[in-house]
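Changelog note: in this version the structure field was regenerated for every chain. One regenerated record is shown below for reference.
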Amino acid sequence: MLRRLLLVLASLSFAACSALEGPGYLWQSVGGHLELMWRARPIVELLDDPATDEALRRKLVLVREARAFASAELRLPDNGSYTRYAALDRPFVLWNVFAAPTLSVELRRWCFPLAGCVGYRGYYDKADAERFAARLAAEGYDTHVAGVPAYSTLGWFDDPMPSSVLRLPDVEIARLIFHELAHQVVYVAGDTTFNESFATAVEEAGLERWLRHREAIDGDSRPAVAWAEHRRRREDFLGLVRRTRERLAAIYGSDEPDERKLAAKAAALERMRDDYRELRRSWGGFAGYDRWFERPLGNAHLASIGAYTDLLPGFRRLLAEREGDLVAFHAEVRRLADLPMDERRAALGGQVVVGAAALPPTEAAGVGAPQWAAGTGRERLSEEASASQDQRQGDEK
């Protein structure tokens, strides 16, 4: 592991030399990850320790069982990831900053060693993330800051299980493990939507099998029923986001003057709120997404979700065509990963993003920080689960 760390630090140090704020961002990133690694203790030791809190012990047993299931049944990597536990003094392991131009649904992208270009920038301190978001907002961007309960280092390190994950419901913990391990199977530098849509497809298939496995053991069908209901609501929510992004894209692509585009944007976002109220009624008053809608809506807010689901239907189709055979599915995804982006998107029924707001070459070449495959946490895992957690723990404080 030391050799890998030295290689990462060497590449990051080289990149940071040319970045305006590279050194400071580099060291907060390296320091944040090292803190996580240093806090980690083997889960087996904690389970053997009679002083371990019973609530924590139950969660750690769940992690160990889901981790074993991931490798044995889902053919995900069998390594040291999520075999250790890191107790943190904050609700999230880091915070991602998303930004999009005022009249664009495409995320601004930053480029990093190892991970390539991604549509977010991560900070281990929430105040730092909010300061960076404020700076981008002053430059005219729509911004969105989202807490991340866990991330993947793509197999470079044995990722520990942070305490920020164990505050989530049991089904979300298993789902996160499956998602993050999927990043170790296939990862294409610079194609966030491909990577996250693939991992989301794996987490969905994995969770359905995990719930059947658990039901066979304890005879309790309620988690599977609850997951099916959650997934129905989640599909409704994602459909609402997709339709709104399509309306906004049409507005921004029109020949209208900017003043009219901004007015039409405000109207489209207000319509989205109205449509959500209708969804709530159709759900029998379920309010799990209220927290998401209480925040200021904008391009970055919506695009951060699209980055994780836009190609999901294509991956679901690939898995169905292979009759659920995950080994064959992973092999096909690896094949697609080797193709140019336009061919990958065509195979999955998606489109190449044109006109994404990338950074100028001088800045993009050297931001200098270890941007792993960190997802948004809220959007990727579960709006419902995260919203209910917010109600109990406060708004990421």
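Spot check on this record: Confidence is low (pLDDT under 50) at residues 6-20, 351-397. Residues 78 and 211 are 21 Å apart (CA to CA).
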